[in-house]
Write a structure and sequence with these properties.
single chain; 396 residues; alpha/beta; Aspartate Aminotransferase, domain 1; Aspartate Aminotransferase, domain 2; 2 domains; 7-stranded mixed β-sheet; 3-stranded mixed β-sheet; 15 helices; 13 strands; 44% helix; 16% strand; binds pyridoxal-5'-phosphate
Length: 396
């Protein structure tokens, strides 16, 4: 078939991406998530999943989903406000509220939707939203879409945020940050941000996609880690597809916040409820998170082991104590080369390039999981050393 007008218009964009080493390709898995995965016909040791606690294929959680599917079937049939809200969804919301120490929680079908929906329900024209430069795309998109004055502050620089707050005359001011930054692995200075928000009459929202399940004594996340209750951190968002190993997301906070979201968050109102069986699986996951505290300990031990090993090899890591351990190479091409070299040795690590990260900061994003063994981490370190040593003199 001859190229259509559409294809003719789009093709140069694809070519440009390819030339800049920014083209993305999907890989096809033939196995469940786990430390060993079957990818395009090969067995690889994976260091790129966000399944930080190894729960995505946990037998108890799989069984919960299977048995709920037998009762509730597969599809939820409609949105929560029409007829898709089941007792599994409802119980999960109550359990999430209890776990995070909030009055109420509300389930969303995805984290992306939770962020866009929440920001847009809280601020609009005439208001202001302040976001860390390194916030997740869904938070940035939510802020841009809201019509509020959108201001980004330098990464984790409380003083820069304060200057912007001082200058703002907006009626409603919403500060939005990642609790754990998804591509850097560092934490936001939450206690300072909470104090600043209070001083300037601003509202604080934190996205805990990478802290929920992993941080805090019981796994309740970054808010628990810093001891921030609902007064200090009124808008807590978490996702369920990462540490919790299932799918979906939630926002937790006061009764008034949750009722406002139910009335006004469009990505909540105008979408089909997640299947009840997914909610049932997440209920089982919440129990495992709380009962199997060894998973957080195992993860912590592996993080320490990886950082120490990488240090001994002279690899420069970022300032992260979480499961996200990026190694910055700078240019996209070198990053891809290292990722390909690792894959030849049987290791799968994500090469993260712009626009996901700023220009000139392309990186390997190594993610550790409680499902890994120390031997697997040692194997990755050895492979990294071999591949990086073989690179044509790239200063690291
Ligand atoms: C993954 C992620 C999201 C999106 O969550 P989904 O449930 O995958 O849509 C939102 N925020 C952050 C920081 C994330 O890493």
């Amino acid at each position: 078939m001859p190229d259509s007008l559409l294809d003719k218009a789009l093709a140069p964009g694809l070519q440009a991406r390819q030339q800049q080493h920014l083209y993305r390709r999907r890989r096809t898995l033939a196995s469940a998530q786990g430390s060993q995965v079957q990818v395009d016909g090969r067995q690889l040791t994976g260091f790129c999943s966000n399944d930080y606690l190894g729960l995505a294929n946990h037998p108890r959680i799989v069984e919960a989903m299977r048995s709920a599917a037998e009762h509730y079937g597969v599809g939820s049939g409609a949105s929560h406000l029409v007829c898709g809200h089941t007792s599994e969804h409802h119980a999960l919301e109550e359990e999430l509220a209890e776990f995070t120490g909030r009055d109420r929680a509300l389930l969303f079908s995805t984290g992306y939707m939770a962020n866009v929906g929440t920001i847009n329900a809280l601020v609009g024209k005439g208001d202001a939203v302040f976001e860390d430069k390194l916030n997740h795309a869904s938070l940035l998109d939510g802020g841009l879409l809201s019509g509020a004055r959108f201001q980004r502050f330098l990464h984790n620089r409380v003083a820069d945020l304060e200057k912007k707050l001082q200058r703002s005359e907006a009626e409603r001011k919403l500060i939005v940050v990642d609790g754990v930054f998804s591509m850097d692995g560092d934490l936001a200075p939450m206690p300072e941000l909470a104090e600043l928000a209070e001083r300037h009459g601003a509202w604080l929202m934190m996205d805990d996609a990478h802290g929920f399940g992993c941080l805090g004594d019981t796994g309740a996340g970054t808010a628990e880690h810093f001891g921030l209750d609902q007064n200090k951190l009124p808008v807590l968002m978490g996702t369920l597809g990462k540490g919790a190993g299932t799918y979906g997301a939630f926002v937790a906070g006061s009764e008034v916040l949750i009722e406002t979201l139910i009335q006004q968050a469009r990505p909540y109102i105008y979408t089909t409820a997640m299947p009840a069986a997914v909610a049932a699986a997440t209920r089982a996951s919440l129990k495992v998170i709380q009962e199997e505290g060894w998973r957080r300990q195992q993860l912590k031990g592996l993080i320490r082991h990886f950082r120490q090993g990488a240090g001994e090899l002279g690899l420069t890591l970022m300032d992260s104590d979480t499961a996200i351990q990026p190694i910055v190479f700078g240019d996209a091409r070198t990053t891809l080369e290292v990722a390909e070299g690792l894959e030849q040795k049987g290791y799968w690590v994500g090469a993260i390039r712009p626009p996901t990260v700023p220009q000139g900061s392309a990186r390997l994003r190594v993610t550790l999981s409680a499902a890994h063994t120390q031997e697997q981490v040692d194997g990755l370190l050895q492979a990294l050393d071999d591949v990086v040593t073989a690179l044509p003199k790239t200063p690291l």
